[in-house]
Structures are given as C-alpha cells and as structure tokens.
Amino acid sequence: MLKVGLIDHHLDNFHTNIFLDLFKNELKDEKIVFACAYESDAANQEKDWCAENGVARCESIAEVIEKSDALMVLAPDNIDDHLELGKEACASGKRVYIDKYLSNSYADAKELLDICAANGTEMISSSSLRFCDGVEKIAADLEAEPTWMYARGPGSWPWYACHTLAPVLRLMGDQVERVIHTGSEDNITVTLRYRDGRSAVIEVNDAENMWEGFDWEFKVKVNNQIVTFKPGDHRIFYGNMMKEAAKFFKTGETCITPSMLEMESWLYQAVADSLKNGNEWVCRD
C-alpha cells in the first residue's frame, strides 16, 4: 500500500471525504491508503475526523511528511492557506498533489512552484473537471488541435472558475498570449488569445440560482466540427482525478505540467487585473 499523508485546514470537507471513500471503494485496486493527516484548524472542529476514519492524527506537517510516501495538500475551501500549508510539502522531495488550484495569488503560486523546482519535488494540482468524461473522450480521440473552445459555469473568479477553466487548459494547452475580462465582478466573460491565433471564451456567473440556470457546459471546435459536452456524474470525474493522482504518486507520470500550473495561476491574477484596469487586455510576458 502506498501511504498518502493529508495536509488540510479542516479535514471534514467534501473533497477529503469523497477522495477517502473512492480509494476505499471504486479505486481500492490502486492500493492507496490515507495513512496520516494534519489539520491546521483542528481546535475549532466539532468532531475528530481522524478517529472516525481510522487515520492517524499528526501534530505537525513535518510529521505527516516523515510518515508518508506521497502528500496531498487539500484545503479546498481555504485556497489562501495553500502556500502556508504547502511549503514544507513542496520542499520535501516527495510527490505532492495540491487540491483544486495553487492559489488566488500568482506570487504565492509561483513560490510553491519555485520551492518544488529548487528541491526536486514533483507536484500536480487540478480541478477534477479536467478529467470529466467529456474531456477524457475528446482528449483520447483528438486527431487535430482544437481551434476554439467555449466554457461556461457557475461561481466566482477564481474560487469556482477553476472548474470551468481546467477543461480549456487540458484541451487547448497553456500557450496563452493575452487575456481580457469584458464582463463585471459577478458576470465574468473572459477571452483567451493563444500565441498561434486560437482562442477560447469562458463565462462564469455568480447568482443565487446559478446551480439551476447556469450549470457547466463546454463546446470545442476540432476539424471544423463543434462538439458539446457536460461534466457528467461528479463521482466519475472525482474518480478520474484520483486515478491521475494515484498514477502520479506511483510513477510520476501525468498530463499536468509545471508550465500549465504557472499559466493557470497567472490567468487567475490577469483576469482580476483586467477587470481592475477597465477591462483591458493583459499580456503574458
């Protein structure tokens, strides 16, 4: 069994619970066990997640690193804590998965990537929608490069927009030249212009009824044909993400590259900057 150590703000959250359940059930043949865990906000939790789930509690991040073969930095509801929670893991030399996306701050994300590079640590981070069935099928059957993509989804930028952006970066790649935000704070409309002239449009809408009227939808143009898809069953795309994490932990193989992670982090910052600067184009250096 490969022993994975968890580093979290509070362990009792949807992501940690579903990942644990997947490795105990559908993904049991991956032979991954959550061996130990640390939560930074343990004092404010109503129940003992570790005791309830048979996971050894650690009193420090260093202890988790010592007792684990690979590491997961979670905190999906506390992205701003990723730098503080992830620094020791990224310096450990052990393979690291950081949940959802690296940071709301490009500077923080770049610091995590630089720590990994300086210490020979392999690291991935992703929204599970990067691995939803629609993306998996298109990625497997691609005979030509997509020339255009449209993605829409609920939530705010970047906290939930990561799920809408992830399929775009998976299928279109990370060679974005410039980006512009032409919407407003609650009505995000983003255009990505790639260095080779291709483009993608992303819409993210934060509304009281967004789950009813603005669910995820994706369109991709390949060979002058448009294919439309939706994410499908959440348990399947979470499972696909954990399959990718398991493969990465065991072999180091992954479709997620450091350059892709840096571009994703830059985009979160650049879109915010475009809105702040009066909806102007922001160019990648």
Polypeptide structure, described:
The chain is an alpha/beta fold and 285 residues long. The protein has 2 domains: 125 residues, Rossmann fold (3-Layer(aba) Sandwich); 127 residues, Dihydrodipicolinate Reductase, domain 2, CATH 3.30.360. 38% of the residues lie in helices and 25% in strands. The chain is built from 10 helices and 13 strands. It has a 7-stranded mixed sheet with strand order 12-11-7-10-9-8-13, with helices on one face. The longest helix is centred in the last third of the chain and has 19 residues.
How many runs of DSSP E, i.e. beta strands? 13
Spatial separation of the terminal alpha carbons: 44 Å
Domain module tally: 2
Name the helicity range.
25-40%
Q: Can you tell me the CATH class of the largest domain?
A: Alpha Beta
Helix count, DSSP H or I runs of 4 or more residues: 10
Query: How would you characterize the largest beta sheet?
Result: 7 strands, mixed
For CATH, the homologous superfamily of the largest domain is named as Dihydrodipicolinate Reductase, domain 2
Strand content: 15-25%
- Computed CA radius of gyration, to the nearest angstrom: 19 Å
Please state the structural category.
Answer: alpha/beta
Q: Architecture of the largest domain, according to CATH?
A: 2-Layer Sandwich
- Poorly predicted ranges: none
* Dominant shape: globular
Order of strands across the main sheet = 12-11-7-10-9-8-13
The CATH topology of the largest domain corresponds to: Dihydrodipicolinate Reductase, domain 2
